[in-house]
Amino acid sequence: MTGGPTRRDLLRIGVFATLSAPAARARPVHEPVPDGRPHHLTFVPDGFALDGQPFQIRAGELHPVRIPRSCWRQRIQMVRAMGLNTVSVYIMWNVVEPQPGRFVFDDRGDISAFLELCRAEGMWVYLRPGPYVCAEWDLGGLPAWLLYEGDVRLRTTDPAFLSPASRYIALIASLVAPYMASNGGPILMLQVENEYASFGHDRTYLEAIATCWRSNGIEGPFSIADGLPQLRAAGTTLHDVAVGLDGETAPPGTLSPGGPVWISEAYPGWLTHWGDKSMARVDFESDFRTILKRNLSFSLYVAHGGTNFGFGAGANAGHDGGRFQPVVTSYDYDAPITENGHPSAKYQSMRAMLAGVTGRPSRPLPELSRASDFQPVMARHGGDPRLAFGRAVSSDIPQSLETALHQPHGIGRYTCMLPAGPAATLHLGAVHDVASVFLDQTDIGTVSRVWREGQPPHPDTSIAIPARAHPARLEVLIDSFGHIGYGPALGDRKGLLGPVMLGDMPVTGWKIQGLSLDEADVARLRALPETTPRAGLVLFRADVHLETVADIYVDLGTWPRGYAWVNGHLLGRYWSMGPQRRLFCPAEFWRQGSNDIMLLDWHATDPHSISGFADAGDA
């Protein structure tokens, strides 16, 4: 298959196959919790020891940035009530450093506050700060501003990458040092990079990352995480560093001197892409029973997935960038804890199994969030979003949004004049990711890079252009999805990349504008006066009155494709191709009384109704 299957394709086949021979070992009884005193996790031949006693890491992954901040404590409590003793935590570099040198640790990016809650709730932490994390997150957590200048070689010792990565690590190290277990905090172990063997084989790069942590006062213990075939092929283990295996395992002590083997990602669920037939569903009970029977340390990826609010959703692709598959807005992941923080049947089953093997009674469940709905409301037209685009940049040829505008996400607008002439074929070249094409304001077609089963890995990006008696204005609007976040195609730039040809003639003389849909852009969109819409990008508004606030799923299944905001909060993307139809809006985004819903849609011209439901529905 062109592009080749990704590791995530392969992991769906025979997950945990090497676990089929259970081994009976004594169940560890050492279960201390963070108490403000120093504790020390060390490596032993068959796993881990805490303060010199055998210790099983039973972790569940949570991503603070995907969880409403007001819900952090409840989600941590749900993980503990399940019978787990550790929270595995990603830090997304692009969230905490949105611009070079400008660090932001507020709202869902306040990692210190999250670590404090873990300590208060008696949970250890396995910290995974990257700098690369994957996580189906935009660019795998790397900041898109790394792509602004030149051909930076991501995840290498290239100074254009390693210098800002070292700056990031230095700051994170200063924040998390007080939270290391050796200093009385909850962090037992820290991960060096993530799934590097699926990308490269330069051990010196991994050593440079580990050295950077140590030079900034974090002495470990450390772990890596990767797929077993990739790890063996690349040989990127490190001495005295634990080996975390994702989706499979091997007999302990066989992969790296001085480091035990454990399961860094066990998959109770799976991700979903736009265009999949349904939301992912995984039967994990048998695999989980095997893990528990062998008394292996493990981390559930994920215990609770949450939501790809804003522009968090990333994308997957083949090795050559073909088969581009963006991730849906929901990161429910068929995890034990649902997107809105409730226990699933899978949660109850796994909770019972954990209680059985640990001999510890299950802790009571925390209070669950209240869910509500609202009756259908009719949307109305908003202003003309084209009026909100930024200043134009002139370029002889099309350029990426990152290069031309230093814009990391959102919408691009590319305009030029085509000469008078006969009908011809317009070849757009590389389109990242969906292009809506207009000639003198007439819609002449759409080109999409998004791959679906049965399609060729790379799309045909040509469009028929009618005959023109006079010069005509060409407008190409680009909807950019998340950056590829996994594998060799990491680092794709967004926009109209070209080369653009009219027949065999290059098309030149472009004006490039952007709409990043950041807070300033959203404020401008909300302030636009209502107007008769133009085809191709239409703004809609709706008012919802609520007597009380609660979690609500906003149903946009009848709307074609676009972005949805509630009271200025970007819920994420919707798309009628599915499988997701409803977007989760947590209680903290709503207000008692009047609420403003805003949609920016690529195809709708007439208003539709919008409904609210108490659950995600069937997809």
Automatic annotation (TrEMBL):
Pfam families: BetaGal_ABD_1, BetaGal_gal-bd, Glyco_hydro_35. Belongs to the glycosyl hydrolase 35 family. Its EC number is 3.2.1.23. Residues 538-595 form the Beta-galactosidase galactose-binding domain. Gene3D superfamilies: Galactose-binding domain-like, Glycosidases. GO terms for molecular function: beta-galactosidase activity. The active site is at E195 (proton donor), E265 (nucleophile). Keywords: Glycosidase, Hydrolase. Residues 404-514 form the Beta-galactosidase 1-like first all-beta domain. It comes from Tanticharoenia sakaeratensis NBRC 103193. This is Beta-galactosidase. One of its GO terms (biological process) is carbohydrate metabolic process. PROSITE patterns: GLYCOSYL_HYDROL_F35. It catalyses: Hydrolysis of terminal non-reducing beta-D-galactose residues in beta-D-galactosides. Residues 48-354 form the Glycoside hydrolase 35 catalytic domain.
